[in-house]
Design goal:
Blueprint: H1 8-30, H2 49-54, H3 57-64, H4 73-88, H5 95-120, H6 133-139, H7 143-157, H8 166-175, E1 187-190, E2 193-196, E3 203-207, H9 208-214, H10 220-231, E4 257-260, E5 263-268, E6 281-286, E7 296-297, E8 299-302, E9 337-340, E10 359-367, H11 383-386, E11 389-393, H12 398-405
Antiparallel strand pairs: 1-2, 2-5, 3-4, 5-6, 6-7, 8-10, 9-11, 10-11
Helix pairs in contact: 4-5
Length: 407
């Protein structure tokens, strides 16, 4: 219930979830599965205040539309800032006293900063030399003091660092006179996503063979050959998967060196409000190094069908999703999509080169363990590389959740 807008799809899901709960709740009680948190004794009721409130959401939305009183976002953030964060700084003893002490210290620090800012603020009543004091008294109706107080309050309490609007930066660069800025542009917009690359690459010049060895990509030259054969040296076509590798590992290319960026910053707009900017995030792809034997990289979503547009299209045409035995595309217990690693007929990983502007979003991947026992050799450095299937974590970000679920 933290969505800023509740669509008809979300409303129907709420109603269906409540109906499913009432259908099975008596079975849970009959088997004694509902137990008290402290006594561990079976309970014969589901007396949840939030659950009782939830029954009024759908009827109210049908009558008056969605209203802010149904969102738990504000209270949830307050609970995190006032309770969870201070409690996490304690030693799990005497919570009340330590939380109060933490809040008290934070308040003292905040008041100290406010006092210092007030002392450093220039006096608003000072006049420049040569001014007429009588005239100043006549025209001073209090508005100047009010404006000064408002400006001071804004300087003290408003965020000191605003999110960079990369969309506006990209528009300004497009309007710049030819030759006044380097080309190609390092900030550009593609579909609903804006991209920002550093002016200087992480590796300014590296041979194709050295890049293949550094990133452990033995078929890099063949992949570049396939891409050029499919798109041409200067084509701007929408690239799709081209199937098995056709070019040899020593294919002739019109260039011998590459420039490499290890990361790119992306920014998108809010799923429910296109006028609201989302926070910029970074997608990394670093070469193997200790202790990252297989490299350190982030998951990302690429658009491979120009008839679809992220985020409105959801996961259509984006991923190879494993269909469950019951016909569902999500794992029942977690509600997460299961992704399968793409491989060739030989079992080798399937690789492809795509233009950067087809990247649409980052995605959080979690390893999936098929067996009852987890391989003890797995670690945070190799679990994703060694897992044939993995979970797509849709709970990592609200806007990503809305896009995946279509809420």
């Amino acid at each position: 219930m933290q969505a800023p807008a509740i669509s008809s799809t979300t409303r129907d899901k709420i109603a269906a979830t409540l109906a499913e709960f009432h259908q099975h709740k008596q079975v849970i009680l009959n088997h004694g599965l509902r137990r008290g948190g402290q006594t561990k004794l079976p309970l014969e009721h589901f007396n949840f205040p939030k659950l009782e409130l939830l029954h009024n959401v759908v009827p109210s939305i049908n009558i008056v539309g969605t209203i802010l009183q149904w969102t738990a976002d504000t209270t949830e953030h307050a609970h995190i800032e006032v309770v969870k964060d201070p409690a996490s700084m304690t030693n799990n003893m005497n919570y009340d006293a330590q939380v109060c002490r933490t809040l008290d210290r934070n308040e003292k620090c905040h008041l100290f900063n406010t006092t210092i800012s007030l002392i450093q603020q220039p006096e608003s009543g000072c006049m420049e030399d040569g001014g007429d004091p009588d005239l100043e008294d006549e025209i001073d109706d209090g508005k100047n003091d009010d404006n000064a107080n408002l400006e001071l309050a804004e300087a003290l309490w408003s965020p000191h660092r605003k999110a960079t609007n990369l969309f506006a930066v990209a528009q300004q660069l497009l309007k710049a006179p030819p030759g006044s800025i380097p080309s190609p542009l390092r900030v550009f917009v593609a579909s609903s996503t804006v991209f920002h690359l550093n002016h200087e690459p992480s590796i300014r010049r590296i041979s194709i063979d050295d890049a293949a060895q550094k990133f452990n990509l033995p078929d890099l030259q063949g992949a570049l050959g396939d891409y050029l054969n499919h798109e041409g040296a200067f084509a701007r076509n929408f690239h799709v998967f081209s199937g098995p590798r056709r070019s040899s590992h020593n294919a002739e290319l019109p260039f011998n060196e590459l420039r490499v960026w290890y990361k790119v910053r992306l920014q998108q707009k809010s799923y429910h409000d296109l006028l609201t900017l989302g926070l910029a995030f970074t997608v990394h792809a670093h070469p193997p190094c200790r202790p990252w034997k297989y490299g350190c990289y982030d998951g990302a979503l690429l658009n491979i069908n120009e008839a679809h547009a992220w985020p409105s299209s959801g996961l259509a045409e984006y991923l190879d999703i494993v269909t469950q035995a019951n016909g569902s595309v999500v794992e029942p217990s977690s509600g997460l999509h299961i992704l399968k690693r793409a491989t060739l007929a030989s079992g080798a990983p399937f690789g492809e080169i795509f233009p950067l502007d087809q990247l649409r979003s980052d995605c959080n991947l979690a390893p999936r363990f098929d067996g009852a026992q987890v391989d003890s050799r797995l670690s945070c450095y190799n679990s994703i590389h060694s897992s044939p299937t993995m979970f797509l974590n849709k709970y990592i970000d609200k806007d990503f959740y809305y896009a995946v679920t279509g809420s």
